Amino acid sequence: MNRTEFIIATAIVLFVAFCVGWFTHWLIHRLIRVPASDVAELERLAQELHEAEQARDDAITYQQQREAELTAQLGQSETELRAARDEIHALRARLERQTSSG
């Protein structure tokens, strides 16, 4: 094999290696490429997830506010109940005194 044949053989081997590399690169990108419809679907799902998280946060905030209101109402009702019981107890005691003295 003379020098010219060696150069031609080397050029052919390098060209074939380049073609195989280019084809492999093209094939890999073709296989892993995400279609535009999938990207749109992912964006829609992300938006829905964000909206669901926002709704959950709003529901938690509402629940906490409502719980605070109901706790305050319960405290007020218990205070009123205690006052009513004390008043009934005092009236009963006065009635018993009046009944026993009269």
Would you mind describing this structure in some detail?
Helix content is 94%, strand content 0%. The chain has 102 residues and is mostly helical. The protein has two domains: 1-33; 36-102. The model has no long low-confidence stretch (mean pLDDT 93).
Identify the notable features of this structure and list them briefly.
single chain, 102 residues, mainly alpha, 2 domains, 94% helix, 0% strand, rod-shaped
Give the SSE layout.
Layout: H1 3-32, H2 36-101
Task: Tell me the strand percentage band.
Answer: under 5%
Distance between the termini: 143 Å
Overall average residue pLDDT: 93
Rg over CA atoms, rounded to whole Å, is 43 Å
As a percent range, the share of helical residues equals over 70%
**What's the structural domain tally?**
2
User: What coarse outline follows from CA principal-axis ratios?
Assistant: rod-shaped
Q: Given the helix and strand composition, which structural class is it?
A: mainly alpha
Order of SSEs: HH
Specify the number of helices: 2
Largest sheet: none
Poorly predicted runs = none
Number of strands: 0
Summary of the model, kept short:
This protein is mostly helical and 102 residues long. The chain has two helices and no strands.
